[in-house]
User: Fold this.
Amino acid sequence: MSLTNIIGQSKTIAMLLGMMRRGRIASSYLFCGESGIGKKTAAINFAKALNCLDRGRETDTRGSGPDRFDSCDSCASCRKIDAGGHPDFLAVAPEDRVIKIEEIRLIEDALSYKPFEGRWKVVIIDEAEAMNISAANAFLKTLEEPPPDSVIILVTSKPGALPDTIRSRCSRVNFFPLPNEACRRVLGDRYQGDDLDLAVTLSMGRPGAAHTNDLREERDWFLEHFRNMLKAGKDGWTSREDMDRWFDQALIMVRDLATLKIAGPGRMINLDIQDYLRELSKSLDLDVIIYLYGELNLLKGQLLYNLNKSITWNYTASLLRKELLH
Ligand SMILES: [Zn+2]
Assistant:
């Protein structure tokens, strides 16, 4: 893959290629946008394009014209970056949801040498908002005095969770959810017919989400716990990740309840369970649904600050029972 092969982000990709064409490479970037829309893929392919040994081959696959600043996707450098084995390329991601200072030290170390083979040393920090305070402080020093010939790409779906001091030192590059048609093209290699329709709808412009988890399975997993909550069942989440997944789905479902009230089923996401949701929404006023959405959204936001799992389960369950069961 190369930058021009990325589906549904053509403006952003054109901007990245334009910066390369003008030789205006910033020392640090912040790739922002929801998860599952191609930010990390773009970051890796940006690193490939920066260091490609054979730029300039025709890369036209979708009528965008050859771009001699894109990667060739086949030279030794491109292949090494794809395989994670390029000496001038480092990708860091959270372990147990945290990026610790040790990871930042690795980055400092990697950036302290001149490039071995490439033009640029490139570091990608995925889910950069997961840096803890000491990691963020240490990292700030690197950002303030960027080593020459280095490019740091922070990838995040929650830019607001990064300290201002870090955000303000990066060139921001925004990515957006994909239009349905682009989503369909991405998901078409995995789903067909009705399954494809459902995957496109459930992914809400984030086809990466449909690639990593089966979305219907994910939704059904959520529903099982949701019903369990309504029956005052015990904490069923096994990890913080579970909590995150559950709240993502809960917000989609509550939004569907509102959509049913306002616009009917046409614009729902969970179309295939509309009978169940209609039953649920029947006795609810719109303002109660909006209140619920706000409360769940608040809880989800607070997950960043280490909410206790079983307390959150019990609190959420009692909130849902109070508002949904009469
Ligand atoms: Zn190449």
About this structure: The chain has 14 helices and five strands. The chain has a mean pLDDT of 91.
